[in-house]
Each structure stands twice: as C-alpha cells, then as structure tokens.
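Risk register update: the risk that structure generation would not scale has been downgraded. Supporting records follow, first protein first.
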Amino acid sequence: MTDAQGPAGWYPDPAGSGQQRYFDGTTWTENYAPGAPPAAAPVKRGHGCLYAVLGAFALIGLIVVGGLIALGGAAKKVSDDITKTNKQVAKEVKITSCAADTLGDIEVDGTAHNTSSGRSDYLIEVVVDAQSGTQLDSSVAIVNNVEPGQTAQWKAVTTAKSASGVTCKVAAATRHASITP
C-alpha cells in the first residue's frame, strides 16, 4: 500500500518490520497489530559450517604432523640407542677360531661376554670371505640366557669350503634382554 491508495486496514508493514501495520486509507499510522513480536531477520547463510569443517581438518592435520615429529624424534632416539648397543655388542662378541671342520666346511667359534646389567640373548651373524674379499657364505649363531658378567661360547657352521686366505668376521651382533618367567 502506498499513501492515498486502497481501503483502510491491517497490512504487512512496508518498512519490513514483519508486523502488521494499520493503513488508514491515506497514510500508514504508527499503530502495529498486537500479538507476535516482529519476525527475526532472515538468517544469512554463510560459510560457517564450511569454516568449521576446514578448521577441524586443520586441527587434525596439526595433531598428525605433531605426532609424526614426536615419533620421528623417538625413532631417532631408538635408532641411536640401537647403534650404541650394536657398537657395545661388537666389543662383546669375539671370534676365537675360523677353521675347517671334518667335512672341510668353515666353522666359526667365538665368545659373547655380557657387559649389560641383565640376562641377555645374542644373535650373531658371521661371514666367510675369500682372500679376494668376495663373500663365500654367511651363518648365524644364537646364544641365550647369558648372565651379566658371564661369557658364553657360540658356534656358526657355514658351507664355505676351506681354502687359503679365507677370513671370518662378525658382520652383525645384537643383544636382547631375556624374558624371565
């Protein structure tokens, strides 16, 4: 309704209040219909939900990255500890004999001296090399339940045949704590 048009009556407020306003047939009065308060302004649909989802993904990403960094540090510490342990174990494991057995195969004998504070198991890998440096064979020896301060004997049998200039060496050695029931 505009001024000077139509019959008098209650109509939607042309000012957009959401209420009924009285038109006297000539002008809009300041009279509003009793009852419901003005309707709330329409809700603007924005990107709030999208931002919430993106924020959640960003937070999860930060947590994952932080966790990976922490794990990387822990993994490096474990790796450093293993390297130190392997260096220590290399000092504990010795070859005492590298000779042919009765069949002509190279047999490697050695000792493992436990310098740790607990009962330990050893896994020892030995290699047999030709005089040229070519690896002829490898074998493993396992020694279980070596008490602290004790020395245990071990033996590794290979299929490499005895020849002049053959050498034996410890390629790797690891020590693990024994599990006591």
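Supporting record for the second protein:
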Amino acid sequence: MAPHPGLDAAVAALRRGGVIACPTEAVWGLGCDPFDEAAVMRLLAIKRREVAKGLLLVAADAAQLDRLVDWQALPRERREAVLASWPGASTWVVPAAARVPEWITGKHDGVAVRVSAHPLVQALCVAFGGALVSTSANAAGEPPARSEADLAPWLREAVDAVLPGQTGGLERPTPIRDARTGAMLRD
C-alpha cells in the first residue's frame, strides 16, 4: 500500500496524546490512544459523552487485541464466532482483560472491539502499533459525520489531526453483539 497523505501526522498526533478524526466503515470517527487517560478524557469532552458508557476499540488484526481481551473467558465456539467475523464490520463486546482501563470499559465488565476491514483504519492501527479508541465524530445525540465535509467546524478545531479519506460505504454504523451470548446490542 502506498503511503497515505496525513498518516504520519495522525500517528504523531496520537503519540503526543492527541485526538484525531478519520473515516471508518460507515461514518467518520474520533480516535486516540486508549491507554492515555488525558487523551481519552479530552475525546469524551469533545464528544460530550459520559465515561460510564464505555468506548469501542478498533484494531488492524486480532493480535492487537490479545492483551486487551480475556479470550479464555469465552467458550471456544463463541471465541471462534467472533474471530471468524473479522476483519469486518462486526463489533463485539468481549470480556475485558484486567489491563483495560476503566475510562475505556466505563461501567461495564466487557470492552467493545472490532478488527476493521477498512484499509485506512488498518494502516493507522499498524502505524500506531496497537488498537485505538474509535467513536463517531459528533457530539453525543447528534448525527455522525458521513464524510470529511460533514465534520462540524467546531470538531475540526477541537482535534489535533484529520486523516483524509473515504468511509467504507456502509449505510449504518457497525452492529454490536455480545460475544458471550451472540445477542444483538446495536443493529
């Protein structure tokens, strides 16, 4: 894959504790380092979202999630179902490993994770070297941005970098399922 314009700047911003905006499968998202509490709190402030709700993590491959997910807490068939759905537009709430901070899990004992099939999200996670927070680029309760042009001016000013690109073309945000039961949490 040819170098993407803006990728180095986005990764540098993430490593400095910044918040970025980038395209995902269906909508534009906000991202940051999940282990940088100040960055996560800033992302939540930009989004006007409560920490108790928890945040989704996106990765380039399942290996980037191995230290974040307690795979052994899932029965083999449930674990296989999760892994078989990736890479792709499937988000799963899985048992969180002990090292996942409360500012990511919120009031939950699980963590929402996805291995993205979006080439730019994959490239970003590879270049960063791990999973990233991924949440829609909008204030809580407002419609998410569907294109870079849809990013609100106040949001553009609030982030440290905008990674140009296109969404993956999905009509709606990815479905979220409970990995323990397979139950749909968001269709």
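The two ends are 32 Å apart (CA to CA). On this basis the risk owner (M.S.) recommends closing the item.
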